[in-house]
UniProtKB/TrEMBL annotation, chain A:
It is found in: Golgi apparatus, Golgi stack membrane. The chain crosses the membrane at residues 30-51, 72-93. One of its GO terms (biological process) is Notch signaling pathway. The keyword Membrane applies. This is Gamma-secretase subunit PEN-2.
UniProtKB/TrEMBL annotation, chain B:
This is Presenilin. Its EC number is 3.4.23.-. The lineage of its organism: Eukaryota, Metazoa, Chordata, Craniata, Vertebrata. It comes from Cyprinus carpio carpio. The chain crosses the membrane at residues 51-71, 83-101, 113-131, 143-159, 165-181, 327-347, 353-372. Homodimer. InterPro entries: Peptidase_A22A (IPR001108), Preselin/SPP (IPR006639), Presenilin_C (IPR042524). GO terms for molecular function: aspartic endopeptidase activity, intramembrane cleaving. It is an enzyme of class 3 (hydrolase). One of its GO terms (cellular component) is axon. It is a multi-pass membrane protein. It is found in: Cell membrane; Cell projection, Axon; Cytoplasmic granule; Endoplasmic reticulum membrane. One of its GO terms (biological process) is membrane protein ectodomain proteolysis. Probable subunit of the gamma-secretase complex, an endoprotease complex that catalyzes the intramembrane cleavage of integral membrane proteins such as Notch receptors.
Length: 113, 386
């Protein structure tokens, strides 16, 4: 990895104690990772770095971290919208779609048409 | 501090057992490690079969523990890490897939493959990232609790009655021996790790706080300021810092047999099953490190979570006293955990977390089921309030 590994080992809980470059790098990696169909990763990114990006006094990397957090939030909102739309459509029309509906279904509720 | 995660894990297991009937249905499938069936004609035969099953399981665990110690001694870290990675992968994807499917069936919810794929993919990948790489501590703790619960559920489903209780008892004894005896494999592991001044295995231990490793000194030694960042790099990854050697708690261990029975031919599971097992044995509770750069925290092995939850889950699944017994076992385990932590504070060395809690749990289970419940029933029947 990089220089920061020398200073700590293990999972990060406390963002306080890692250097800023490391925070930026982590934020960026989480942001990039989210493009692999991982809105959850974007959510974690937003929640974890929210305080760092918006509620802390400014430091050099903060601007970039802010931009990553904003972009992650944007991506997350898009995903949520798409998923909600799809789920609504599916749940509403599943019965009417007949065979296609069954083919798409992982579990089919019992006792309904 | 450790009570909350242990409680959460048990709550998840009990809630699942009570609501999703899949985990209490005996489909007749058993793990490959417990080949003898318990549905025999005579009680004697059943007792014999369950003892044989337990013996096989325990010997598998012992072998796995020894293999792990040997691997560790000969520095085959890659093998161990790969093993853990793979078993985590299995747990996070395959088992949670099954779990989710059963939950949806129970609540009669329609689910399409696309949404399901998105959910499982996200859950699994973020879990792997948090456990094996870097992630927020709370999320990592949550994932560890979830995989322990999933594992406990697998055991509850696939181990027959008497075998399960015998295994619990035998594992506690083994834990005790392996951690405290001078030649015990786990103790050797711990000591080797201490000599080399390095953390044992990442991602196998639940830690209540995060620790900064500026030195890898053992708390028994005075703080030594040499840090060994380089050799540890490969072992780091994620996990927890081990000041005290962490027990490699494996969170894998799905039985190939089970998998085979599910018509999935996943060969390499064997290792996971075992590693999981042995993880159990590894010393679980560890005293907090005393270096001042760190935050104190107590670490508990994942195997302990699994067995505690398995005990409480079995109690809720099969006890005639229902909630009485479940709550009694729950309290017993927490009391045992308290005592273990107390001993940890007194002795300041790695201690087995299983024996005390499991003993109390077993005693309370059998006592409540056979003594307290009939007593309460009779009181209710005669409308006699005390």
């Amino acid at each position: 990895m990089d220089l920061s590994s020398v200073f700590f080992i293990g999972n990060i809980m406390n963002l306080e104690r890692i250097p800023n470059e490391e925070k930026l790098s982590l934020c960026r990696r989480y942001y990039l990772g989210g493009f692999a169909f991982l809105p959850f990763l974007w959510l974690v990114n937003v929640l974890w770095f929210f305080r760092e990006a918006f509620l802390k006094p400014t430091y050099t990397e903060q601007l970039q971290i802010k931009s990553y957090v904003k972009k992650s939030a944007l991506g997350l909102i898009v995903w949520v919208a798409v998923l909600t739309t799809w789920i609504t459509i599916f749940q509403h029309f599943r019965a009417q779609w007949g065979e296609v509906g069954d083919y798409l279904s992982f579990t089919i509720p019992l006792g309904t048409a | 501090m450790l009570f909350i995660p242990v409680t959460l894990c048990m709550v998840v297991v009990v809630a699942t057992i009570k609501s999703v009937s899949f985990y209490t249905q005996k489909d007749g499938q058993q793990l490959i490690y417990t080949p003898f069936r318990e549905d025999t004609e005579t009680v004697g035969q059943r007792a014999l079969n369950s003892m044989l099953n337990a013996a096989i399981m325990i010997s598998v665990i012992v072998v796995m523990t020894l293999v792990l110690v040997v691997l560790y001694k000969y520095r085959c870290y890659k093998v161990i890490q790969g093993w853990l990675f793979f078993s985590n992968l299995l747990l996070l994807f395959f088992f949670s897939f099954i779990y989710l499917g059963e939950v949806f069936k129970t609540y009669n919810v329609a689910m399409d493959y696309f949404t399901l794929a998105v959910i499982i993919w996200n859950f699994g990948v973020v879990g792997m990232i948090c456990i094996h790489w870097k992630g927020p501590l709370r999320l990592q703790q949550a994932y560890l609790i979830m995989i322990s619960a999933l594992m406990a559920l697998v055991f509850i489903k696939y181990l027959p009655e008497w075998t399960a209780w015998l295994i619990l008892a035998a594992i506690s004894v083994y834990d005790l021996l392996a951690v405290l005896c001078p030649k015990g494999p786990l103790r050797i592991l711990v000591e080797t790790a201490q000599e080399r001044n390095e953390p044992i295995f990442p991602a196998l231990i639940y830690s209540s706080t995060m620790v900064w490793l500026f030195n890898m000194a053992d708390s028994a030694e005075p703080r030594n300021n040499s840090s060994h960042p380089v050799p540890q790099q490969e072992n780091q990854g994620e996990c927890l810092r081990e000041l005290r050697n962490h027990t490699p708690e494996d969170d894998g261990g799905f039985t190939p047999a089970w998998v085979n029975q599910q018509q999935h031919q996943l060969g390499p599971m064997q290792s996971t099953e075992d590693s999981r097992r042995e993880i159990q044995e590894l010393p679980s509770a560890r005293p907090p490190p005393v270096e001042d750069e760190e935050e104190r925290g107590v670490k508990l092995g994942l195997g302990d979570f699994i067995f505690y939850s398995m005990l409480v889950g079995k109690a809720s699944a099969t006890a005639s006293g229902d909630w009485n017994t479940t709550i009694a076992c729950f309290v017993a385990i927490l009391i045992g955990l308290c005592l273990t932590l107390l001993l940890l504070a007194i002795f300041k060395k790695a201690l087995p977390a299983l024996p005390i809690s499991i003993t109390f749990g077993l005693v309370f289970y059998f006592a409540t089921d056979n003594l307290v419940r009939p007593f309460m029933d009779q009181l209710a029947v005669h409308q006699f309030y005390i």
